Amino acid sequence: MPKSSAALSFGTGLKLAIFLAVVAFFPAISPNLYMMNIMGFAGIHVLICTGLNLLMGYAGQLSLGHAGFWGLGAYISGVLTAKFGWPPVFGLFASIFGTSLVALIVGFPTLRLRGHYLAMATLGVGIIIHILFVQVDSLTGGPSGLINVPSFSVGSFRIDTPLKNHYFIWGFAALGLVGAMNLANSRVGRALKAINTSEVAAETMGIKTFQYKLMIFVLSGAYAAVSGTLYVHYLNFTAPETFGFMNSVLLLTMVAIGGIGNFWGPILGAMILTFLPEYLRAYEGLEVLLYGLILAAVMMFMPRGLAPILSGIPSYFRNLAGTK
Amino acid sequence: MGELLQFMFSGVMIGSVYGLVAVGFCMVYNATEAINFAQGEFVMLGGMIAAVVFKSWGWPLPMVFAFAVISSLIIGFICEKLTFGFCRDPKVLNLIIITIGLAIAMKGAVMMIWGKFAKDLPAFTGEKPLFILGATLIPQAIWIVLISFAVMLFMRFFLEKTTLGTAMRAAAADKVAASLVGIPVRWASTLSFGIAAGIGAIAGVVLTPVTLTSYDHGTMMGLKGFCAAILGGMGNVYGGFLGGLILGIVEAFAAGWGTSGYRDVVAFLCLILILFVRPSGILGETGRERIAKI
User: Fold this and answer.
1) Which end of chain A has less Cβ packing within 10 Å, N or C?
2) CATH of span B2-277
């Protein structure tokens, strides 16, 4: 790295502050409520993708079942608030605790696997979680979904308007982004990058690779839990379809299109893939085809994702020199 | 007894289709180390082409069969040339995501051209079931098992005994060394993709008379084939087929004795258990850890 990580963090921090300022002003420039609505989903996607990028980009572990953890976060808080009348704040904590616990239990045996095997194991876990949402219908409402989920509230303050939701969701997204930035520039972040480059080399340098991988797996599970909780209280509804295999792929695609291992990757990818379908909707019937072609084309011609290109030519070359 | 046999019949039938898809996975994996997520879509494509051609042109079934397989093979070649061929950084993760994009695009294209409705194809030799020890066996099931088994044996023969197959295996084992002895390595990847597409199409055509086919039929088929390939040992043709059979039988019994809603849970649970106990698969090589560069 030609630049010290502290300086890098300062530059990234400044850009992040500018980005968040633009997001804060978005309600003022948003053309209509519909766009505000989509922006809320973009924030939810940014949060979960940032967590997934920690796992994929920094630790180099592929997960094909992340939508399962996302759904677990959504359903735990959703069921507790809608069926048992818990306050959403407790729902949020229960969801973080429950999802992290499941991630720990799943991660303990699976993270010993590598490459395709890890991908397959996470895929299997994701599909099993998804089927449970459909089958345990006395709790989850089955295939038709969980209804009457209350909006998020803290005491008597209810977050029920699009404007309040915008700041609420993006507040959590900002927290998650700052957390990820700090983590990437810490001892843990450097250890993860070492694991990504070579597990054997990292191990010989005294890095407890398995513990770090497990930690980051649980952490990305916690990101997914918060994101899922925000989702369920934002929509006041949830259905199993949102958390199937194709959405695990979608999350992975968001990170990949933005740029795996790049701090801006998940932000960019999540924003693009949340807004893109809205514009493709005009091409009725053609949207699925276009979506697939765009995905393949980006990976073919810009394998490092879109983020390096947008963050300017100079830093692109710096990154290139840094990772080679 | 009749019940047991009935589960076995349906398990072996669906299992040989999974096995066939797994053989396709093995082909691409052996040549490129990538998991081809479009494999399931070729199963769907083969079935769709056969159903549409049979209905609108009225060709006899064997011709329809051949046409569907050959056209899928050609589409497979073209897809590989257009995607992997232009890929700037052929890392395994990039290739996997490209195949996911390809799968979504194929699904979208089929939905656009032929619509969302399920299509069918008549059984190859009638619908009259056979009764064996209290269990019923449809003639199409026999066709499925025989054709799948024949394709698997042929692929094994092709890879082990022919010059072309040996060249492909060499290209997979060591790209640099293979190109030094004059094997066009790029071309081995194209060939494997095309053959895998053809095998997928065969699976699609034989299965369509039993389960029908529609644009969204491919994804789960691909996942189950992937499961089977890992179960048996990724990259091993016999292993993939055996994995498919085991998966099919386990699923059939889970659906028969439990509730069919949990059928897929049992299948994936078995897979996860196998991964923990023996990650290299049933017939996979042990001792040498496969570290995929994802």
Assistant:
1) C
2) 1.10.3470
